[in-house]
Amino acid sequence: MAPHRIALLFNANKVYDRQVIAGIGHYLNSTRVEWDLFLEEDFRSRMRDIHQFKGDGVIADFDDPEAEEALRELHIPVVAVGGSYQDPAHYPAGVPYIATDNARLVRLAYDHLIEQGLSRFALYGIPATTGSRWAQERENAFRAIVTAENVEGIVYEGSPTSAGGWGEAVEHLVEWLASLPKPIGIIAVTDARARQLLQACVIGGIAVPEQVAIVGIDNDPMAQLLNRIPLTSVIQGAEEMGRTAAHVLHQMLRGMDCSTTRVIVPPVGINVQVSSRFQPMRSPHVMRASHYIRQYGCLGIKTEQVADYVGVSRTVLEEHFKRELKQTVHQAILKHKLDTACDLIINGDTTLADIAVRCGFTSLQYMYAVFRREYDCTPRQYLESHRKTATS
Known about the structure:
By secondary structure, this protein is of the alpha/beta class.
């Protein structure tokens, strides 16, 4: 039999959509199902010609406001993928729907910030539009949590992202961050919004995570690459959504009625990084210096440069560091470089020579010498030891 012709209507320029598509691919690779897949060449999802599609089925992103309307009269099986709703009446009628659990995404981020010892919280959302219903659901989930737990919760939706208005939007974001009570934990509805928060904190001289701890949603590798401060992010179950959607469509192609199917897929977990590892500090000098070290510690900075940034003498800064952290500024810089190197060694596919350069060591040989002195092993031995621990 000829393979079924299936249209995947997603915006594959977005990490969430790509993960859903990857889940569909995993389902096909793990079964004997053969589909002839259609996906827009430039990765955008366009609905204008979908009624001319001579195919057998569709899996579509119903967070796209055009999708539900365009596919309503399509007389082939359709599986919807999108955000979950607090009100079941908002789900499209007569279409199987596979959803990410917006309430649990926000709850996971909130619980993590609670575990860090924070007692004030905010959410950075997106202005309400027909295409951002999922963001409004996350905002509603946040409001419900802080109301139920009787804690302070502040919501700021900011401005839509556009090149023309970006300068003014950043100014307003910096002003909002400066006005917040500190310390505070902020949940961003996406990693893209979280990255904007990190940029605004740098511009406003606001220490992350000592004053503002940040958690995003998506676990987007691109967002990590574009930040100096590694971002904590909730990992959606997007691939599982794709696998489930493909399975449901497979059943429909075999004649099964799945029109009332609703599957809410929970998040996978949370990738905890520096942006949310809140540690209360008494000294504002140490807080400001730590923020500077996190941004530039791998660029060869010296104690004098840190003191200049903080606006105090080297002697005064060293006294504050010894009192609060029981270490010198130089030791704090070295610890940051080593922590970054260890993370790259464990989680990346970067060569050791490149890691040495990226972490600010003058040579690979010097990085080896520092590892032997601090950890009594070489970088390669450190990796082997980590692998043994992970598998034991």
